[in-house]
Design a protein that fits this description.
Elements: H1 2-21, E1 53-57, H2 64-80, E2 84-88, H3 95-101, E3 110-115, H4 116-123, H5 131-134, E4 135-145, E5 148-153, H6 161-170, E6 175-179, H7 184-196, E7 202-206, H8 210-219, E8 224-228, H9 231-234, E9 239-244, E10 272-278, H10 283-297, H11 300-308, E11 311-314, H12 319-343
Parallel strand pairs: 1-2, 1-3, 6-7, 6-8
Antiparallel strand pairs: 3-10, 4-10, 4-11, 5-8, 5-9
Helix pairs in contact: 2-10, 2-11
């Protein structure tokens, strides 16, 4: 009996030692759910796959804002693999189109192509916030050449800038200067009238976007406007340029003297376009659209439309460079915007 008990005790000791020496296997991590979606910031960019991209143009058809993007929309669509559609919504120096944009979700399927008027509108408080609070800027396209020309109807009787200035002084209140109220054309017209010394002698009257202002000059409702140099080739029998807002004679109108040549100093008009989405758009969409604009401007179509408006040079700014350019524009022209607001 004692031998049996000893054997049992020995067996128990061996079992205990084996149990103590055995390493525990750590619990396996639960298998990942194959259907679990990755975090939003890791999800692949699928834009644009859900339909056409609609681009709002704050101008009527036929002007440079419409024509430039209408030409670029084909190459942009090819690059992105989708259709790019245009919706013209003129009025309010861009306010109507911008407020329409802000009604959409920031999903990359509704954007806007415009220019300095949007920034002027923002500076004068015409939006519910500043442009950098409301828009994600994909690209800014500064252009050189094709500067403004002080333009009159050939039947005006004025052949030189001196003729025009003398008439304004002799007939105060008679001359109608076509502008688009609240935008760049008003700011620069007010500045030019001040430079020429006729601020209190002319009437700045709102006729709308570029094509509408041209129609007013053609029809005699207005006597003068500031328009792009290519207006002189578009209406060779109707329009006459009195002075160019450029530092050097423009190739499109080499016989039109510059304001600098006429003794008014280094005066040069500024021009740029931009593409924007509503604030909150995926940064990858912003980057991709900026790339698309760059690619489009390098195509034959892009080069042709820039040449059509006599832009001698142009570039595409994206990211921080785009915002820095717009901030510099604000700084340079803020005094003129403030003068416009003060004048009511």
């Amino acid at each position: 009996m004692k031998k049996v008990i000893a054997l049992i005790l020995a067996f128990c000791m061996v079992f205990a030692l084996c149990a103590c020496g055995k390493e525990e296997t750590p619990a396996e991590a639960p298998a990942e759910d194959a259907n679990q979606e990755p975090a939003a910031d890791e999800a692949p960019l699928t834009w644009p796959t859900e339909g056409d991209i609609n681009v709002l143009i704050p101008a009527n058809t036929g002007g440079d804002t419409d024509t430039t993007f209408r030409t670029l929309s084909g190459p942009i669509g090819e690059y992105l693999g989708t259709n790019v559609m245009l919706t013209n919504m003129s009025g309010g120096a861009g306010a109507i189109a911008l407020n329409e944009l802000f009604d959409y979700e920031p999903d990359g399927y509704t954007g806007i192509w415009h220019h300095y008027d949007s920034i002027i509108l923002s500076m004068k408080g015409g939006l519910d916030g500043t442009y950098d609070e409301l828009l994600d800027i994909a690209a800014v396209v500064p252009v050189s050449g094709g500067n403004f020309v002080l333009t009159v109807n050939v039947n005006s009787g004025w052949e030189t800038l001196d003729d025009f200035v003398a008439y304004c002084n002799d007939h105060p209140g008679e001359v109608v200067w076509a502008i688009e109220a609240g935008g760049w054309s008003q700011v620069y017209a007010a500045y030019m009238a001040q430079v020429l010394g006729v601020s209190d002698k002319v009437n700045l009257v709102d006729f709308g976007s570029s094509s509408d202002r041209n129609a007013a000059l053609l029809g005699g409702q207005a006597q003068v406007l500031l328009g792009p140099a290519n207006n002189l080739t578009a209406y060779p029998d109707d329009f006459l340029g009195l002075a160019s807002c450029s530092l050097e004679p423009q190739s499109v109108c080499p016989d039109v003297p510059t304001l600098k040549e006429l003794g008014y100093g280094d005066i040069e008009s500024t021009k740029f376009y931009y593409f924007g989405f509503k604030k909150g758009t995926d940064p990858r969409i912003i980057e991709k659209m900026g790339e698309a604009v760059k690619v489009a401007l390098e195509t034959e179509e892009g080069k042709e439309v820039m040449s059509r408006y006599y832009y001698t040079s142009y570039e595409v700014l994206t990211g921080d460079e785009a915002y820095a350019y717009l901030k510099d524009f604000e700084t340079e022209y803020e005094p003129f915007v403030m003068d416009m607001l003060a004048a009511g």
